[in-house]
Amino acid sequence: MRTSILAFIMFFIMTSASFADSNVYITQSGAALDLDITLDGNANEIGSTTDKTLLTGANLDVDIDLIGATNTITGDFIGAGESGSDDLKINQTGSTNTTALNVGASAATDDVSIIENRE
Amino acid sequence: MKKVILAFIMFFVMTSASFADSNVYITQSGASLDLDITLDGNGNAVGASNDRTLLTGANLDVDIDLIGATNTITGDFIGAGESGSDDLKISQTGSTNTTAINVGASAATDDVKILETRVGSSGATTYTIGNAATVQDVSVTVDVVGDDIDITLVENSSSTGSDKTTDIDIATDSDDVDIAVTHTGAGAHKTKLLCTGSCAGSDFTMSQTGANSTDVDLTVTNATSSDVDITITD
C-alpha cells in the first residue's frame, strides 16, 4: 500500500516537473542588439533541437539569466565585441545546469568578452 | 480665373474624401455564420462608437477585407471555432490602419483561429485574448508587410492544458518594429516571431508566465540597435 501511495505521489511530482519545460530559440543578425532573457523554472532550454541559438553582429549586449535546475544553454555567438564591456553575460542559478557555446564557429569573431556566473 | 477653377476642383476632391468614411456595426449571435465584409476606401470603420462589433456563435466564418488608409477594425469575437479552419480572417491593405480585437472577453471561447494579413505602413494591431471567461486554444497569426509596425497581444485566458499560440510574421524595411506579446495563466504558451528585411531599431518584448510548457521561437534579421526582452516564469 505504501508503495502504491509513493508511486502515486512520484507520478504527480514527475508530471509537474515535465510541465516546467520551456524552450527559447533565437536566430538573430544585426549590430548593437540588446537582448535580455530571463527564465525562471526547471528543465528549461535556450537553444537546441538542434542548436537554434545564433547570435550574429557587432557590439552585442546579451544577458541570459536562468534560475532553476537542469537548465541548458546551447548555441553560437559570432561577431565583433564591444571594447571594454561584456558582450555575453550568462547567469545560472541552480543545480545540474549546462552551458555549451560555440564562439566564432562559422564567421570572423573578434574582441569578444563572455562572463558566466553559476551558483 | 485659374484660382476659381482650382478651388472648384479642390472642393470636389475634399467632398469625395469625406464621403469615404463608412461605418459597419455588427451584433450577431448564432452558429455557422458566413460573414464577408469588404470596404474599399479611406477612413472606414468596422465597429466602435463604442465597440459595436460582437460576433458570437460556433463555427463562424468571418472574412473582413479593408482596402485603403486609416481604416479601423474594433470589436469582440466569442465562440467555438471550427476545427482546421480560420474562424476570423482580416485583411488590411493600406497605411495607418488599426485592428483591435478582443477574443472571449465575456463568454467561453474555444478552438478559435485568427489570421490577419496586413500590407501597409504605420499600422497598429492589438489582440486581447481571454478575461474572466474560460478561453482556450486560441491561435493568432499576423502577417505584416510594411514599415513602422506595432503589434500588441495579450493572452490571459485561464484554462489549463491547451495550446495558446501566437505566430507573427513580419517583412519590413522600417527599422521600427514594436512587438509586445504577453502570455499569462496556465496552458501551453507558444510564441513564434519572424522579422525579416530590416528590423533595426525595433523592440521585441515577450513575457510568458504559467505552469505549463512554453516555447519562444524568435528569428530576426538586421536587428541593428534593437532591444529584445524575453521573460519566462513558471
Overview of the structural elements:
The complex is a heterodimer of chains A (119) and B (234). Chain A contains 1 helix and 9 strands; from the N terminus they run H-E-E-E-E-E-E-E-E-E. Chain A has one helix at 2-19, and strands at 22-29, 34-40, 45-46, 53-56, 61-67, 72-78, 88-93, 98-103, 114-118. Chain A is globular and about 35 Å long. Chain A starts with a helix and ends with a strand. Chain B is mainly beta and 234 residues long. Helix content of chain B is 8%, strand content 55%. In chain B, the strands form 2 sheets. In chain B, strands 1, 2, 4, 5, 7, 9, 11, 13, 15, 17 and 19 form an 11-stranded parallel β-sheet that branches. In chain B, strands 3-6-8-10-12-14-16-18 form an 8-stranded parallel β-sheet, with no helix packed on it. The chains are: A alpha/beta (119), B mainly beta (234). The interface between A and B is medium-sized, with 30 and 27 residues.
Name the biggest interface: A-B, 30 and 27 residues
* Main sheet attributes: strand count, strand direction, barrel closure of chain A: 5 strands, parallel
Domains of chain B (count): 1
Q: What profile does the largest beta sheet of chain B have? A: 11 strands, parallel
Average pLDDT taken over every residue of chain B? 86
Which class best fits the helix and strand makeup of chain A?
A: alpha/beta
Using only C-alpha atoms, the radius of gyration of chain B works out to: 19 Å
Oligomer kind: heterodimer
Distance between the termini of chain A: 40 Å
Termini Cα gap of chain B: 74 Å
Q: Rough shape of chain A? A: globular
CA-based shape of chain B: flat
In total, the number of strands of chain A is 9
- Strand residue content of chain A: 35-45%
Number of helices of chain B: 1
The number of E-state strands of chain B comes to: 19
Please give the share of residues in helix of chain B. under 10%
Give Rg of chain A in angstroms. Answer: 17 Å
Q: Which percent band covers the strand fraction of chain B?
A: over 45%
Helix content of chain A: 10-25%
- Based on helices, strands and strand pairing, what is the structural class of chain B? mainly beta
